Amino acid sequence: MTTDFHAQYWAYTLTVQGSPDSVDGLSRAISNARVDLNPHQVDAALFALKSPLSKGVILADEVGLGKTIEAGLVISQRWAERRRHILVVVPASLRKQWQQELWEKFFIPSVVLERKAWMRLQADGKPNPFDLGDQVVICSYYFAAKHREAVSHVPWDLAVIDEAHRLRNVYKKGNKTAKALSAGLAHATKLLLTATPLQNSLMELYGLASVIDPHLFGDPASFREQFVREPDEELRNRLLKQRISEVCQRTLREQVLEYVRFTERIPVTHEFYASDAEQRLYDDVSEYLRRDTLYGLPSAQRTLMTMVLRKLLASSSFAIGATLERLLYRLRELQEDVRRGAAIDLHDDVEEDFETVEEVQDDWEHDESPDFENGDIDPELLAQEIAIIEACSQLATNIQSNAKGDALLRALSQAFEQADAVGAPKKAVVFTESRRTQDYLYRLLTSNGYEKRVVMINGSNNDEAAKAVYAEWLDRHVDDGVPTGARAVDVRAAITEEFKNNAAILLATEAAAEGVNLQFCSLVFNYDLPWNPQRVEQRIGRCHRYGQTHDVVVVNFVNERNAADRRVLDLLSEKFRLFEGVFGASDDVLGAVESGVDIERRITDIYQRCRTAEDIAAAFDELRAELDEQITTKMSETRERLLEHFDEDVQARLRVHRDLAQASLDERGRMLLNLTRHELGNDATFATDHPRFKYHGAAARHGWYSLDWRVAEAEGLVFYRVDHPLARNIIDDARQRPLTVQHLTFNYAAYGSSIAVLEPYVGRSGWLACSLLTVNSVTDEQFIVLAAITTDGEVLDGEWCRRLMRLDAMAKDVDASPPELTPAVTTQINGHLREVETRNGRYFDAEVQKLDRWSDDLKLGLERELKELDSEIRAKRKESAVALALADKLAAQREIKALEQRRNRKRRDLYEEQDKIDEQRAEIIDGIERQLRTTHAIQRLFTVQWTIQ
């Protein structure tokens, strides 16, 4: 039997705030997450948490190794510490994916902050919507830079920056977004995620390092002097690797093949020929979009809207047809001079169909061109535009079937046959960029043999089929705690579950490429192919990810009557290598282009200005040549020497972290299960062969709970963890229960295995005290202090006590008064305090060493300027000596005198500047010393008399 003393000990042990830079301290964050335990991710999280004085690190794992999971572990750790001012800055297209991952894997709520959410929060009484404190804030680069002032006023506990290579040129003039982000987050601890911290120049490492901490290196000039211009490459690389390895960690795919299995990508292209009517519609709309003057599109958004309309045109006649009807309506309104402003704004209408308009707009440069005034409108040109749109709209209406839709039916049939032949699931996800095309494909598929086998997922999920799936899902999970209460999250989970368990085809807009995990599906159809390579990678990554057991077939469609479409596919396939291989596009390639929006913009320009196949070929050749310059391998060898650590030490460290983390998780799971069994009693039935139980009490939802998230997910159970509401209630009850002194008789014989340290004490008795030690320093930390003595005065350490608490015991009234246990307790306390002081000493030494190198860098820069002046003076003296004419000699001497005066002033300034650097260094060290001051408090939890029998 267990006792209330056991329960209180377990409850406190499960919830104490440990040191985050240890595997044991991180284990609470891991145990609350629905993620597979991969040692390289634990290693990366520990690296990010290694010092509370650090201003941040760069996690630079190769593609496919889960940098998002690594960041999630760090966020989860901060969240558990109740340090909840957390910001995540990502490319606009990744915002929803991050939100979904944080909730599904770590149960951490977040808000995507964009224009509408900003206005809503301010209307709800939040003057600074960044300052929430109860949700992680996710926003795009553009949005964070635009609201730099608001960002800078929040006391961030952590700022995560994904695709951080966008900031690597922050040191250059004109890099407005990077400079605004760096300034706005100067006070925050930062976690930068990028597989390409170094692409073209060593100065990029300086740029990212300066974003993290301005004291990692000196100024750009001193960095160039030491690391760029240093002729001894071996010396340079050794010194720079030593410096950068303190803030940058990179794991290679080769290092984790022992733990992670990767499958292949297999590309398939299906050609189709657009009908004459479809081709005419394409040609007519294309010519319309090339007109010099367009009243139907707002001037400030013409480039963006042109790209969107071209994508809808390529998607289906149904997508572009509905947009043309709306455009025609607005042009007629404009012709009648009715609410001119509303008449030329297509944004809201297009956004209903092309869901990623706002995300794309967030990344595109913004044109400030004013819209047309009434007096600027030429009635004749407006009438011509209306006539063109009328004809195009009628043509689209008359088209009842699309050649690409017919090609999809053929491709699905072939793909399902091949999947069946290799034993892969007969499931396919079909991506389209248009909601209206999605509706068309739903009608097409359900009327061609796939009725009741198709589900749709999009940005709103308000169609009747989605509502029905959602209602059934709610009924199915009514008592198991799976629903979150947030419809947007739950309906996506319901549709995904329906696809996994019942449907064969998932029709998905871009919304499903953001945060939905489909590793049970191995067929990906790009019905519409995005021009942004990062978005294509994101789509395929929904299926081709960790946990996928089959090769993933990626099917693309190409219109053989459209030369530009063929060249886009070739570009994405050959240049970005998106569709084949084990890993798809490498981070080196995607990172080189920094933002796929630039590619979208260039391709839009080609479609706009090129009419003939020859012009199209020349334009794409030019684009490929430019990409060749960006996707360079000239720094690959240097990158390998500086950032990659492929050696036996890494492998050994990963194995140690794997073993320690698993042992810590196993121990936490054992405590939580034992505590739950003790507290629930007859209100739950516990399985004998698995860590699960069925709850039938009154305090929470009934049903089965499992401590293994994989089992819970596979069998539809509740994932039970320390932070689950039922567990929190149980833990709170056990912690708050008042306990009086009692006698515990521990049953060693019933334990079932030998515990060597306890065996000599069988038949003996003594006393045990359990206390809570709270240490307040640069971080708050807690320790469960166990101290014991025998009846004859022998002092037993904390490890002995922890082994004792593993035994079952019977409690009864005590028959003696407890002796003085303070000396034994104090010994344990002092040991923990020394541990904290030793760790703080390491933190202090690391910061002082960093500041010493920073000040040396700056002084080196000052001394370099003196050396350059001395070199100039020597050159002028030689020039004077060889001059023949007196005038030339005198002129040289005047220049020498001026240079000597500059040198003398610089020499005097040097000492003053060096003094200032030393003063600044001393001020920073004083601040560090204040942070590291330590206080502590001790709380006695319980005291028991013990006997082992």
TrEMBL record:
UniProt superkingdom: Bacteria
Database matches in InterPro entries: DEXDc_RapA, Helicase_ATP-bd, Helicase_C-like, P-loop_NTPase, SNF2-like_sf, SNF2/RAD54-like_C, SNF2_N
Protein's name in the database: DEAD/DEAH box helicase
GO molecular function terms listed in the Swiss-Prot or TrEMBL record: ATP binding; helicase activity; hydrolase activity
Residue intervals of the Helicase ATP-binding domain: 48-215
PROSITE patterns referenced in this protein's UniProt entry, alphabetically: HELICASE_ATP_BIND_1, HELICASE_CTER
Residue ranges annotated for the Helicase C-terminal domain, each copy included: 411-590
Coiled-coil ranges from the UniProt annotation: 859-923
